[in-house]
Design a protein that fits this description.
- The structure holds 2 protein chains of 2 kinds.
- Chain A is α+β, with helices and mostly antiparallel strands.
- Chain A has 3 helices and 10 strands.
- Chain A has one domain: Beta Barrel (Lipocalin), CATH 2.40.128.
- The N and C termini of chain A lie far apart (48 Å).
- In chain A, 24% of the residues lie in helices and 45% in strands.
- In chain A, strands 1, 2, 3, 4, 5, 6, 7, 8, 9 and 10 form a 10-stranded antiparallel beta sheet that branches.
- By secondary structure, chain B is α+β, with helices and mostly antiparallel strands.
- Chain B has 2 domains: 62 residues, no CATH class; 254 residues, endopeptidase domain like (from Nostoc punctiforme) (endopeptidase fold (from Nostoc punctiforme)).
- Chain B contains 10 helices and 10 strands.
- In chain B, helix 1 crosses helix 5.
- Chain B is globular and about 50 Å long.
- The interface between A and B is medium-sized, with 25 and 27 residues.
């Protein structure tokens, strides 16, 4: 009886493992550029309407959650917004980058970049949206458009997702 | 094709089945894979070599469209049948995408990676396309878009970004695992044989680092600053592209057009190059810092950022008469 229980128990473990290996967690095919968590992608997809431009005034809670992450500032930059209120700007040249650090917060549909005690830079957000491109390799794009150029890089931030 | 190369080739055709048959037969009849003195795999066009350069153009190849084919696109009054034409241009685009995919799979089976694979696919595609005649400008544009979409798909995240690496005017593409934005767009022109410096007299050469090779030419125009950026170089080379101001009321199909962007506060500082893959240029492929080659994706340069659209010049000797 004990042996049968052991066999059944092992079979059950094996079945669970196999299930996990075959089906995974359902997230392994999703890639983003720049790198972001799969949870972010799922949050965006479940929260935002596809191909709809969200203009100000924004839902503050959603807006703050969407901003946190790594964004491309094309064609040669990245801005990274961290949950703890800090940010990094990376200006690339041949794969290497110059780094600018500071803190960020949102205020009246703007992002306020705090670079020092008396040095701040404000960029108004015109809209953000998630779009689907059925023919594209990178078939989802989350875009955030500023009312001005940020850090001499771009007035658009974008995260491309591949969900094939 | 002999020995191990033949075995590899046959396994590719077997593996990928009927879809590979057309190209497979072409390759079987015309091309062979050999190992050169450096130990690299090279594709040799046997028929062209046997016939010589002049005949190579006349007999070349696969994608030459016959008079009869052209006639099929006409309606009963001798005009262009739009339905057939749309089908034709999209077929040209898809055929180019599939050709890149097939050569890429072939390169995988040969164990090629990175820059070697990139060079192999570009050289193989060039063998197919460098003398192909075109019905008209749209046919060329859609073919170019297909080539670039195929390259973007196959080399996404495989070819890094690096400035000033690639020298364009050679017959064979260098085996370098890096590219800048303009070199990437020019790769498709190289495949089409439309960056031929012997023909134009001005090499399309996006080198802009100090110590550039002797055939570097940057044709300065009043619109572009003296800083010889690669995007400015290509935009200024009117021997190979027609240039359109993107901010004019240009309502044309932008599939297969090259977008040239400018900086935020300086519209004459030409900054980046991409290739539009659809009618309104809302999707594109490009090579950017730090990601390198990126496959088809949203074009975030639409609007003020795109300063020019460039269209490849369809030379008279490449038109179906």
């Amino acid at each position: 009886m004990k042996t049968i229980s052991k066999v059944l128990f092992k079979s059950l473990i094996c079945f669970i493992l196999c299930e996990h290996l075959v089906f995974g967690d359902g997230k392994s095919e999703i890639v983003s550029r720049p790198s972001n968590s799969v949870e972010k992608f799922h949050y965006i997809k479940s929260t935002l309407m596809m191909n709809h431009k969200y203009m100000s005034p924004f839902d503050e809670k959603v807006f703050n959650k969407i901003i946190v992450g790594n964004w491309e500032a094309p064609p040669r930059g990245e801005i990274r917004f961290f949950q703890n209120g800090s940010f990094e700007v990376r200006k690339y040249y041949n794969g290497k980058y110059n780094l600018t650090k500071g803190f960020w917060k949102t205020k009246n549909n703007k992002i306020v970049f705090i670079l020092g005690e008396k040095k701040t830079f404000e960029a108004g957000v015109i809209y953000y949206c998630i779009e689907f491109f059925p023919s594209a390799l990178w078939n989802y794009a989350l875009t955030l458009e500023f009312d001005r150029n940020a850090f001499d890089l771009s007035d658009v931030l974008i995260i491309n997702f591949k969900d094939n | 094709m002999q020995g191990q190369d033949a075995d590899v080739f046959n396994s590719v055709v077997d593996k990928y089945g009927p879809s590979a048959t057309g190209l497979g037969n072409y390759m079987k009849n015309r091309l062979s894979v050999q190992v050169d003195a450096n130990g690299d795999f090279v594709i040799v066009d046997n028929q062209a070599a046997a016939l010589g350069e002049r005949n190579k153009q006349e007999t070349s190849p696969t994608r030459k469209m016959s008079y009869e084919d052209a006639q099929r696109l006409m309606d009963k009054d001798g005009g262009l049948d739009i339905d057939k034409y749309v089908k034709y241009t999209s077929e040209a685009q898809n055929e180019a995408i599939n050709s890149v995919k097939l050569y890429s799979m072939y390169a995988d089976d040969l164990g090629l990676k990175g820059g070697k694979k990139y060079a192999f696919v570009i050289d193989a595609m060039r063998n197919d396309y460098k003398n192909t005649p075109f019905l008209n400008q749209d046919h060329l544009n859609y073919t170019y878009a297909g080539i670039m979409e195929g390259l973007g798909h196959e080399f996404d995240d495989k070819i890094k970004y690096q400035r000033g690496e690639i020298h364009i005017s050679n017959e064979n593409w260098p085996k370098i695992g890096a590219s800048d934005c303009t070199s990437y767009a020019v790769a498709g022109m190289h495949i089409l044989g439309l960056n031929d410096s012997l023909y134009t007299g001005k090499p399309v050469n996006p080198q802009y680092q100090p110590g550039t090779p002797p055939d570097f030419v940057f044709e300065k125009t009043p619109e572009t600053k003296a800083n010889p950026l690669s995007s400015a170089n290509l935009a200024a080379n009117k021997t190979v592209v027609e240039r359109y101001d993107a901010r004019s009321s240009l309502i044309v199909d932008k599939t297969g057009m090259i977008g040239i962007t400018s900086r935020y506060n300086d519209e004459n500082y030409l900054d980046h190059t991409y290739v539009s893959l659809n009618t309104n240029a809302s999707e594109m492929t490009h090579c950017s810092d730090p990601y390198g080659v990126s496959g088809r994706q949203k074009n975030s340069y639409i609007g003020w950022k795109t300063r020019y659209f460039l269209q490849l010049k369809l030379r008279d000797d490449r038109k179906i008469q």
